[in-house]
Amino acid sequence: MSIKGGRQDQHAAAFGGFNFMEFHYFTTIVNPLDLDQGILNELEYRLMLCYTGKQRLSAGIIDDQVESYKAGKSEVLKALGETKTLSVDMREALQQGYLK
What we know:
Layout: H1 8-15, E1 19-23, E2 28-32, H2 37-46, H3 59-70, H4 74-96
Antiparallel strand pairs: 1-2
């Protein structure tokens, strides 16, 4: 039995640090972000990780997303495009030292 899920968690754990990851069908490109130490310090100061005590399985969510994508649902395709654009914008902001 396999557990459905994305590849980002495994790559994040394997590579560590701040990376920009590009996922293609058969490959993943991991680009480490060479960020200024001051930016890293500010991120560490501002970010918080909280344990909620709750678990969830993402398999059902992933199934819904895949089916919606395969069906060509415009709202899903739009959301995926916006997510990709946001990730590029975030990478550029971090590289430029803009955190606001």
